[in-house]
Design brief:
single chain, alpha+beta, Aminopeptidase, 12-stranded mixed sheet, about 25% helix, Acyl_CoA_acyltransferase, GNAT family N-acetyltransferase
Length: about 350
């Protein structure tokens, strides 16, 4: 075996995917899209990336040379993103039959060397690994430590008792439970505040309204609807005077398009981003999230991504996992960092 290393070239993805096969976890599925030709000059100058509108990225391929024929067997990438600028994302994948031969370690050394030349000056690396995977063992041996755990959880339809709201008949709760346009500035600002609050462990920095819209709420993100749970509206002139303003949003749920299925196909759970006003106290936040989850999962199952930092969402979901009202999809995913 003779291993040599070179920059990523167009067409490498086709050869590597054929060799790698299906991703071993959702981590691989997410990161494989990051493999692409390097952008940026690699000399600490951002001009190369800025000229193309691309973020700085360095991507390296390992080839096994057999009888004079070079076959790509592994790849590694390190790159900057507009969010979470305190660290660089990195990912390495090695074909199963070439693991344990030092290829991943060599790629990591090369990526760390490239990181020293990042335009931002940031050199620390982060990545994601599936619990119990070869990647987890490899990164632990390389000195990267977990900083967060994430799980995908499917909540079964009707697994939570519906909350009781004031009012009669169809009007009950109409002043606190509302559909809201995903383009709403009120919703956008709250989603940004919540995202920052649950990512203090990896600060995303300031989030503009446009950035939050692009990442979570516009058509390109897949968002197709939102529902909010508001506080009871109150009048500044006493309970006998009709309020003129809606109550503040306590919790929100943004749903993302599920795949279209043929008639008679089993129902697929919708992916939902569930959160709350980070200024609520812990008990109020937990109650608001639980009530909204009960509403959105009353007739149809939903899938939530639950980070350990999302304490209110965990308070609603973990009892369901224990009782069988929800199930975890796949392994725990750990964000790891130097």
């Amino acid at each position: 075996m003779a291993i040599q290393y070179r920059p990523w070239r167009e067409g490498d993805d086709l050869e590597l995917l054929q060799l790698w096969g299906d991703p071993e976890s959702r981590v691989g599925e997410q990161f494989r899209g990051a493999f692409a030709p390097s952008s940026g000059t690699g000399d600490g100058d951002a001009a190369g990336a800025a000229g193309t509108g691309e973020s700085w990225r360095q991507c390296i391929v390992a080839e096994d040379v057999v009888d004079g024929v070079s076959i790509p067997v592994a790849a590694g990438v390190v790159y900057e993103t507009p969010l979470h600028g305190e660290r660089l994302w990195s990912y390495i994948e090695v074909s199963r039959d070439h693991r344990g031969q030092g290829i991943g370690s060599s790629l990591l050394v090369m990526l760390r060397r490239e990181a020293e030349l990042s335009p931002s000056g940031v050199t620390r690396l982060r990545s994601k690994v599936a619990a119990g995977s070869a990647g987890e063992a490899f990164t632990a041996s390389a000195g990267l430590q977990p900083i967060q755990r994430s799980r995908l959880v499917e909540v079964s339809a009707g697994s939570l008792k519906l909350p009781v709201f004031d009012g009669d008949g169809e009007d009950a709760g109409s002043d606190v439970v509302m559909d809201l346009a995903t383009g709403s500035v009120e919703l956008t600002q709250l989603v940004g505040k919540y995202y920052r609050s649950v990512h203090s462990w990896d600060d995303p920095g300031e989030l503009s309204v446009g950035t939050v819209q692009r990442l979570f709420l516009d058509d390109a993100s897949g968002a197709h609807g939102a529902i909010v749970l508001r506080a009871k509206p109150e009048s500044a002139f006493g309970s006998t005077v009709t309020p003129t303003r809606k109550g503040r949003i306590r919790a929100f749920a943004v749903s993302y398009a599920a795949p279209l299925l043929g008639e008679g196909a089993p129902e697929v759970a919708s992916e939902v981003f569930l959160g709350h006003d980070p200024e609520l106290d812990a008990d109020d936040a937990a109650e608001a999230v639980r009530d909204l989850l009960a509403l959105i999962a009353y007739q149809h199952p939903v899938v939530l991504e639950v980070d350990d930092s999302m304490t209110a969402v965990r308070a609603a979901v973990e009892p369901l996992l224990a009782s069988g009202g929800a199930r975890q999809i796949g392994q725990d995913i750990r964000v790891i960092s130097e």
